Please model this.
Amino acid sequence: MGQVNSSVPMEQNKSDQSFKQGIWIKHYCSSHKILLVGEGDFSFSACLEFLKKNYEKAMSNIDSLRSRGCKVIHEVDATKMLGYHGLNYVTYDRIVYNFPHAGFSQNEPAKDQVRRNQDLVSEFMANAAKMIEKSGEIHISHKCNGFFQQWGLQKLGEKNGLVLIEEVEFKLSDYPGYNTKYGYGGDKNFDCNPSKTYKFRLKDALYN
Ligand SMILES: C[S@@+](CC[C@H](N)C(=O)[O-])C[C@H]1O[C@@H](n2cnc3c(N)ncnc32)[C@H](O)[C@@H]1O
Model:
């Protein structure tokens, strides 16, 4: 099971005014400092940078991200990323984990699978909550039917001091070039419909 993880900070400019002036792709602005974790084939990261640079072609997503000044780090555990030396205690405007999944285990009862996935998301949230700017947002895109609904993202957020501020339908077509990857056992894409992007903020920042 490969856990490829990435950190992709983009250039930042802190004020809300400057966010308005940047180039936006759905929820993300070229002036945000963004940390993306649990990337599959890096096509989501590449999509954000790709549009920003006017549809320029690149040999591979990682090479293209690096050549544009993004930092790409492998083998970072999203549940232990706080204090990871390569991330240098930076705080981010957006921390994004698209389609978290803890992997498959044969014949595992459904309730144990749910619990393992909840642990992954909860520990990711606990770390992200300490790495996000006060006004920042933590985004998790996630399937919103059946087994996936049972993970209870909103409650996991509350347990980690986060408040769900918005849930928005996730449309793959908003991110040209992005392929949603299983992450385990090859290069296959998975069907991400129906999905939502769940946006969280720090409870303390909202109510204090
Ligand atoms: C369903 S795949 C989604 C991949 C990618 N984000 C996408 O949208 O195509 C789940 C990803 O989570 C990663 N993952 C699982 N546990 C992780 C952990 N503790 N830290 C970082 N990544 C993890 C897997 O390696 C896999 O790439």
